[in-house]
Predict the structure of Precorrin-3B synthase.
Amino acid sequence: MIARSSLRKGWCPGALRPMESGDGLILRIRPRVGTLPISALSTIAKTAAEFGSGEIDLTNRGNLQLRGLTAASHSQALADLGDAGLIDADERAEAVRNIIVDPLSGIDPARTDIRSLTGRLENILIEDRTFWQLPGKFGFSFSGTAEARVGDRSTDIMVSSIAPETYAVSLDGNIEVGALLPPHRVVEAVTGLTAVFLELRASDLAIGRMKDAVARSGSATIYAAAGLESTKLAATEIDAVSLPPAGSLNHRGQVFAAGVGLPFGRIDAHQLGALYAVASNAGTDVVRMSPQRVLVFPVDDDTKRDNILTEAKRQGLITEPDDPRLLFDVCPGSPACANATTETRRDARRIADAVRGRPSLPSIHVSGCEKGCARRGAAALTLVARDGRYDVICNDDPAGPVALAAVSPAEIDSAVARFILEHAR
């Protein structure tokens, strides 16, 4: 069993405040409004290769992480990333920019463009130091559809577009209730709810996230304290909007983007450089980050799309939305993380191969220790490594009741495949 002190959670790495891991320092880049200029991919690839291990992760919050830096190379990496405009001026302002943005908003005609609202909130979080007191993992999300969860990820405060000129603002812990607002009131409502959370936390430090505040005070009380009227929200069809945006993305036959999935969220500097080259040649100006670990390249014709997807496939990346690897949330595992007791990515690859082709695959979270860093909340199947073996948990997070205990890594692929088959009957 890992010492509890080493399993402490509560903050995330940044660029200015890197985190020590088993393979060196982790440097996290937080894109503005979920978007990077295409030239940033070239800079990040070169920086990762020169100053780190060359491995880059796309996180479940849509951020990019460079791995394997040292104390000396970190300062050199910051200089190059800073010259490219990818670094915040203050680590506290950087830390508070935890916003997940619908990666298809503004390019998919079927979705509302929520980028201006996101940008306004981001600027307020940076400029108003009151919000710098937020816990390190406190986050926001903006969805261009009626489904509040972007990529099936819950955040502390969620904004969704439920009708023309009408948005819902909802809270983790009671997503079925929310405030219905016109566009011009959305950001004010979000900051008001955040201020109420900070007041509740000041009187009770056991409140670490909005879910805790909802459990203690009730969502109706929190909305009322923010001057908002809450109402029961209509249920939405999640499956139609939560598929990973990989492959050819079209609306009524017109292509609007090419989505490139990263196997278990990982890409290397060479692969990223190759994507930059083909996307740049296609005239793509920006790349969007999906929390489902997909890079979305806006394009406007079939040739540009095909060029990007052909190169991505050549690089061993994901170009089909039904690739089972997109259903996995996988931490770096051993030896990259000192807490992990299994090689999670190796084991996830074997599981993905074992279940490939099966219909209706569930979400799968593979965690090298009890922290469960790769996914917040429940997955259909959660695999938690303890002392080199996996416990399997159904429809819960890593702290949930164990359905299948102490499975060896050599047997985990067949055990999961058998488990899925038996429970599909």
In short: Confidence is low (pLDDT under 50) at residues 1-8, 237-241. The chain has three domains: 9-93+245-321, 105-239, 326-424. The chain has eleven helices and 21 strands. Residues 105-239 form a domain with the Sulfite Reductase Hemoprotein; domain 1 fold (CATH 3.30.413).
